[in-house]
Each structure stands twice: as structure tokens, then as C-alpha cells.
Design goal:
This protein has 712 residues and is of the alpha+beta class. It is built from 25 helices and 23 strands. It has five domains: 52 residues, Helix Hairpins, CATH 1.10.287; 243 residues, D-amino Acid Aminotransferase, Chain A, domain 1, CATH 3.30.470; 105 residues, Beta Barrel (OB fold (Dihydrolipoamide Acetyltransferase, E2P)), CATH 2.40.50; 149 residues, 5' to 3' exonuclease, C-terminal subdomain (DNA polymerase, domain 1, Orthogonal Bundle); 93 residues, BRCT domain (Rossmann fold), CATH 3.40.50. It is globular, with a radius of gyration of 28 Å. Bound molecules: nicotinamide-adenine-dinucleotide and zinc ion. Zinc ion (ZN) binds next to loops.
């Protein structure tokens, strides 16, 4: 008996250690959270009954995370714990009874907050300045990720002095998360590019914080919500609710969804109220956190090894549905990627009725062993489009049919290809395949591209279906068809006028956005900006070879190949010529960045690793402003390799082999003439780092806006 128990405890312990490792280190959830929590609860129960069988390092006793070894670490002044959690209202009432007992009849109140599903962060402010950001890590030590945290736009680097007096030094804790619209957008881009999808917004935020390059972190557009205040000694504020008010007065973003509740009944009301309403928030949430309001009462109740006794998390059950898979449709995207979409019997899920779900790709269908007519599980995991997460094999009907993936494009019948290493099949007929052409047009008119007022995706799609437009350049022939347009249903004189004005306006849209609008595979917003800034004119860009393109920082080999191939296609050259004739911006206007000196003229540099004082972009801009050149690869002709932290050993070896001098960031800066520009501090604001655009660094210190809800 005992050996059976011991075996079960050991098995659970090992399984949970493994799941924790996957979850915190690798951002992978092998099983749904609710299942994980059940395993943990089972282990806790067994350990309670047989404490002598518990493993000393049991996952019930410790915070699940660890430090990553990629960053310097710092000790937490106050341990960063986990929260006790429950999925049941009965447990909440029990929690309330324990609190009542613990406080021996004194009055108390709770604060209820949404449980944001991201990554916990500890921030230190000294004299009103953000000085450090540390992850939870193993609860005692965490990774120091200050420069990444500085890229978070709604997070103030300097606090305001409004509200209650600010302690000279204090800690703010809160959640770093990826807003849902950002998550949806990044995944749509990844889907188009055939890259692996981010599993959910939490993993996406956590993965972003593990990136070394803060410019890349900035591109993930993370945000922060503060939910706790800590200071050395006795708190200058009496209650948690007073501290939330103070934090927002000081400019820190506090979601205004919190509420003070006088009783457990009010807490339960809050829990019910947000059950569905939480889906209207632009941030993923998975429950409610309930905290004792009074700081002294918090102290009185104290802590277990793993979590405070004065707080608990109520988690909403995962929103999953079960329904029948009727059919599979194959959609062709802008770059030809074919994605399977499940057509389902309608099923209510998280406040909407779901009829379609994503199945990602052929591998996924095979991995889950999905067949037509199966009963499948659907989940809405922060994504806009729900996805199939599994099959109910106990209910597999006799008439279930294997899903036969098409071998030819469902739209144009061209045989599909699957490039090596890619998850998606593609239709290679990029110029003839109607859905690809249509999606390219939709992309061209979209907000971040040509942003054509009066011409949304739907309208341009309709024009395409009617044969009124065929490609981007043909849009500029629409003025000649004004009368015809005005005859269309739901168009009218006014809409046509607006559309024509929008078209005219789009001729002023800067070159980098036009380049993005061309929809070249892998040339996203950031890359388009890099290329436009580097080459300045379409003419120069179009004659660049793949090798030259790859030398532009942040333009990798795959991007370079894809862009060069695009420019070499005669049809694309013709398209560009027609756009030029239409008057679209095909070069950057305005001055090239001002030269500061010619000290580095004739010298070439490779930047590698992580730098301490400047971002890579800033160093690049400095080198170029002083007449130097950046290249991508190490060769005999290279003047210097500038080595930051964590530079790969291969680069060092190569440079040594070619006898290329290896210098540090400080040595590089020392080569520049003395002056404020040469040694200017790293970008002070998050804005400057966003999307890593060197030309956009126009540091204006961000201050908290004071509007509690403002996320963006
Ligand atoms: N699926 C898996 O394989 C797997 C593996 C490990 C962990 N998990 C999940 O992670 C959970 C454990 O994670 P945890 O230890 O971070 O605990 P937790 O996520 O249950 O609760 C603590 C965390 O809640 C967050 N939080 C959000 N809003 C908050 C607010 N308003 N106030 C205070 N905190 C707030 C903070 O980041 C805090 O660290 C488990 O319950 C499980 O669901 C899943
Ligand atoms: Zn096709």
C-alpha cells in the first residue's frame, strides 16, 4: 500500500516538475492549466495525509519557475510567491471562513482584481525613477530584464509626484502581458510567413521577455498592469486599495477593473459579473484574485511556503466546447499558404457561437488524428479564432472519414508545394491565384500599408471580384471608373468621392509603408522600414543582391533571398513602374541622417552580441553618422568586430582567423570624437525602441497618463 502511494507521489512529483520546466522555461503548456492544477491538488492532498512520503523539493512547496541563465539575476527583497487557487465557489467560502478565524472576529474587506494572464514582474523605483525590473524566477531570485521592461510603452520610467507622498524607494509588482489584438496580429503575420504560431498570449509575453535584444522585445508590444505595492518597513499606505489609488496617481497603469468588497457575497457577485465580461477586455484573464485589503491584517494572516494566506485566485474553468466536425475548408492566404478551417456544428463558447475553428496545418491534423464527423473539442485560448484541441475518441462515429489534404490549390488548381521545414502547403501561383491576388490588394490598402481612406478590405475585395481592379497599381485607374463605381450597391456618389480622395492621399504615404504594402514575403513593417532607411530609394533597393540585403542589420538571409527574388521578377518590376507612374512614393523624402563626423570613414564594422550602453540600432546609427559602414558577415576585409555580451564563439574564432581586431562597445565609443552625441545615453523611452526604428528615436519621456484604463 505504502509503496503504491510512494510510487504515485513520486510519479506526480516528477510529472509536475517536468510540466513546470516546460511551462516556465520553454513556454510550452503540455496539458491544460486545469489539468495541471488537478494533478497539483492531488499531490497536495496525498502529502497532507502522508507527510513522511513527500519529496523535499515537492512542487507543492515551491514556486514553479526558475531563473533562465540568460540574464544576470537579482535576489528579491520580498519573496515573489504563487497564489493558492481554486475553481470552486465552495472553496472561496472556505477561504473566507479561514480568514474570519485568522482575524479573530475583526472587520475586514477584500479587494477583487482580474487575474491577468501574463508574466509577473517586480519593478523597483528609486527617487521616482525606474531602476530595475526582475522576473519572479524561483521566487527568491529572478532574471534582471530592466532593458526589456523599459520598452513597455505604458510603463512610466519616471513617476509623477501627484497623490500621496512617494517613499524614496519602493517596489511595484504587476503583470506584463501581450494585448489580445497584438497577439492576433503577430500570429496572423506568422501564419502568413509559415512560422510557428505563438500558442497563447501568456506564452508570447513570457517568450518575449526571454529575448536578449530589447529592440525585438519592443516589437512584441507588451504592456503592464500594476497590482501591488511594497516598501521597506511599515507601509506608508494603510490598505491595498489605497496603494492601488496611489500607484495610479503616480502614473503607473492600474486596470480600473478592481473593486473593494465588504463581504464574500460581494466577492462572488464580482466573480459572476466578470465571468463573461472579461472577454470584452483587450487582455487575457483567467480568473479573479481576491486579497485582504488591510495591510496589517495581511501581515497577521501571513504566508505558507508557497503563497500568501491573505489572498486566493479563483480561476474560471477553461472555455472549451465539444461539437461535430462537418467539413474542412482550405483558405489561401496572401503568400499562398493554405490553411485548413474546420466547419463545425454551432456551439456556444465564451460568449459567442462558434461555427469555424482553426486547424493550423496538415501536421496538426495528423498529430491530433482528426477525422471528418468526429466529435472535437474546441477552445478559445485568447485567440480570436477558436481552435480544435482534440478529438473525443470515445465518440468516434463509424462513418468518420480521414481528412484528405488537397494536393492542388482549391482556388486555381496549381499543384501545392511544401518547402522544406515549413508547416504549410503553399500555392506557388502567386500572380495568377485569385485569393492571393485579392489578399495582396487587401494588404496594400490596409492601415499600416497605404492606409487608403474609404477603401477597406471588404470594398477592395468586392472591386476585385467585379474585375474593377487587378493589382495595386490598377487602384490608381479607379478615378476613370468613378461613374461605374457610383452605380454599385452601397457605394453612392459620396463614398466614391471619399475613396478617390483617399487614393490621392495615399500618394503621400512614405516609402517604407509602400514597401511594406507590396506584400513581399517576410518583409514586415520593421524590415520594410530598415530597408527603406538603408537604401532610401526603390531604385537602389531593386538592384541590391541578396548578399547585400542580408548585410542590412536585422535582415536575415531568408528575408534577403525572398526580397531579392521578388525584385528580380519582371512582372514585379512592371508593377513598380506602374506605381511610380501613378505617383506613389518610391523613395524617402527628407534629408538622410546628418553626418556627425567622418572619423570612421572607410571602416567597416560587424556588431555582435548584446551591448550594455546602447542598443544595436543606436550603435549602428552612431557608426553610420560618423562615416563608418555596417556589414553582416566577418571577412578578411572587415575593419572591426564589435563584441557585446554573449557573442557566439564561432564569430570570435572567425575574426581571430582573419586577424580582424575584436573591440568592445567602450572601445568603439572611444574611437568617436568627444561630444554629447557620441556618448549619448541609451534611448530613455519605450517609444524610441518600439519596432527598433533608429530613425524614430525622438526621445520624449513618457509620463503616466493617469487614465487608468489606457492600455495602448
Ligand atoms: N499547463 C501546464 O503544464 C502548467 C504548468 C505549470 C503551471 N501552469 C499554470 O500556472 C499556474 C501556476 O502559476 P503561478 O505559480 O504563476 O500561479 P498563478 O498564475 O496561479 O498565480 C500567481 C500569479 O498570478 C499573476 N497575477 C495576475 N493578476 C494578478 C493580480 N491582480 N494580483 C496578483 N497576482 C496576479 C501573477 O503573475 C502571479 O505571479 C498553475 O495554476 C497552472 O494553471 C500550467
Ligand atoms: Zn492557387
Amino acid at each position: 500500500m505504502t509503496t503504491d502511494l510512494q510510487a504515485r507521489i513520486t510519479a506526480l512529483t516528477e510529472r509536475l516538475h517536468h510540466l513546470n520546466y516546460q511551462y516556465y522555461q520553454r513556454d510550452i503548456s503540455e496539458i491544460p492549466d486545469q489539468e495541471f492544477d488537478q494533478l497539483l491538488a492531488e499531490l497536495a492532498e496525498l502529502e497532507k495525509q502522508h507527510p513522511e512520503l513527500a519529496h523535499p523539493n515537492s512542487p507543492t512547496q515551491r514556486v514553479g519557475g526558475t531563473i533562465t541563465k540568460q540574464f544576470p539575476t537579482a535576489a528579491h527583497r520580498y519573496p515573489m510567491l504563487s497564489l493558492g487557487n481554486t475553481y470552486s465557489e465552495a472553496d472561496l467560502r472556505e477561504f473566507d471562513e479561514r480568514v474570519q478565524k485568522g482575524l479573530e472576529g475583526a472587520d475586514y474587506a477584500y479587494v477583487c482584481e482580474l487575474k491577468f494572464d501574463g508574466v509577473a514582474m517586480s519593478l523597483t523605483y528609486e527617487a521616482g525613477q525606474l531602476t530595475q525590473g526582475v522576473t519572479r524566477g524561483d521566487g527568491t531570485r529572478g532574471d534582471v530584464v530592466t532593458s526589456s521592461v523599459r520598452t513597455i510603452k505604458n510603463l512610466p520610467l519616471h513617476l509623477r509626484t501627484a497623490g500621496p507622498a512617494q517613499p524614496p524607494e519602493f517596489e511595484v509588482r504587476g503583470e506584463i502581458f501581450m494585448p489580445l489584438p497584438v497577439f492576433a496580429e503577430l500570429n496572423a503575420e506568422r501564419e502568413e510567413n509559415g512560422e510557428a504560431l505563438l500558442a497563447n498570449p501568456r506564452n508570447a509575453a513570457s517568450g518575449a521577455l526571454k529575448l536578449q535584444d530589447s529592440a525585438l522585445v519592443a516589437a512584441r508590444r507588451l504592456r503592464f498592469y500594476a497590482y501591488s505595492f511594497l516598501m521597506p518597513g511599515r507601509s506608508s499606505l494603510p490598505t491595498h486599495s489605497a496603494s492601488l489609488e496611489a500607484l495610479s496617481a503616480w502614473g503607473l497603469p492600474v486596470s480600473d477593473t478592481w473593486r473593494r468588497c465588504g463581504s464574500i457575497a460581494e466577492v462572488l457577485d464580482f466573480v459572476h459579473e466578470w465571468d463573461k465580461k472579461r472577454f470584452t477586455l483587450p487582455v487575457a484573464t483567467d480568473g479573479i484574485v481576491i486579497k485582504i485589503d488591510d495591510f496589517r491584517q495581511q501581515e497577521l494572516l501571513g504566508y505558507t511556503a508557497k503563497s500568501p494566506r491573505w489572498a486566493i485566485a479563483y480561476k474560471y474553468p477553461a472555455e472549451a466546447g465539444r461539437t461535430r466536425l462537418r467539413d474542412v475548408q482550405y483558405q489561401v492566404g496572401r503568400t499562398g499558404a493554405v490553411t485548413p478551417v474546420a466547419l463545425l456544428d454551432p456551439v456556444p463558447l465564451a460568449g459567442t457561437v462558434v461555427k469555424r475553428a482553426s486547424m493550423h496545418n496538415a501536421n496538426q491534423i495528423a498529430a491530433l488524428d482528426i477525422r471528418l464527423n468526429d466529435m472535437v473539442f474546441v477552445e478559445k485560448g485568447g485567440e480570436i479564432i477558436p481552435k480544435i484541441t482534440g478529438v473525443d475518441f470515445t465518440a468516434r462515429p463509424e462513418d468518420s472519414q480521414p481528412i484528405v489534404y488537397p494536393t492542388a490549390c482549391p482556388a486555381c488548381n496549381t499543384p501545392l508545394i511544401r518547402p522544406e521545414g515549413e508547416a504549410h502547403f503553399r500555392c506557388p501561383n502567386d500572380r495568377g491565384c485569385p485569393p492571393q491576388r485579392k489578399a495582396k490588394l487587401e494588404h496594400y490598402v490596409s492601415r499600416k500599408a497605404l492606409n487608403i481612406d474609404g477603401l477597406g478590405a471588404e470594398t477592395v475585395g468586392r472591386f476585385f471580384d467585379l474585375g474593377l481592379v487587378t493589382d495595386a497599381a490598377s487602384l490608381y485607374d479607379l478615378p476613370a471608373k468613378a461613374e461605374e463605381l457610383a452605380q454599385l450597391d452601397r457605394m453612392g456618389e459620396k463614398s466614391v468621392q471619399r475613396l478617390l480622395a483617399g487614393l490621392e492621399q495615399s500618394k503621400l504615404v512614405p516609402f517604407d509603408q509602400v514597401l511594406f504594402g507590396l506584400g513581399i514575403r517576410y518583409v514586415g513593417e520593421t524590415v520594410a522600414e530598415k530597408l527603406a532607411n538603408h537604401y532610401r530609394t526603390m531604385e537602389a533597393l531593386m538592384v541590391a543582391t541578396a548578399t547585400e540585403l542580408a548585410a542590412v542589420p536585422e535582415v536575415g538571409g531568408v528575408i534577403a533571398e525572398s526580397a531579392a527574388a521578388w525584385f528580380q521578377e519582371p512582372q514585379n518590376q512592371e508593377l513598380v513602374a506602374r506605381l511610380r507612374a501613378a505617383g506613389v512614393q518610391l523613395e524617402l523624402t527628407g534629408e538622410a541622417p546628418q553626418a556627425m563626423s567622418n572619423r570612421l570613414e572607410g571602416l567597416t564594422f560587424v556588431l555582435s552580441g548584446v551591448f550594455e550602453l546602447h542598443s544595436r540600432d543606436e550603435l549602428q546609427a552612431l557608426i553610420e553618422a560618423h562615416g563608418g559602414k555596417i556589414t553582416g558577415s566577418i571577412s578578411k576585409k572587415l575593419s572591426y568586430l564589435v563584441a557585446g555580451d554573449k557573442m557566439g564563439p564561432a564569430k570570435r574564432e572567425k575574426a581571430t582567423g582573419f586577424k580582424v581586431p575584436i573591440i568592445s562597445e567602450a572601445e568603439l565609443l572611444a574611437m568617436l570624437p568627444a561630444g554629447p552625441e557620441a556618448t549619448s545615453a541609451p534611448a530613455e523611452t519605450a517609444d524610441a525602441a518600439e519596432d527598433s526604428a533608429p530613425s524614430a528615436s525622438n526621445p520624449t519621456p513618457i509620463q503616466g497618463t493617469g487614465t487608468q484604463t489606457s492600455l495602448f
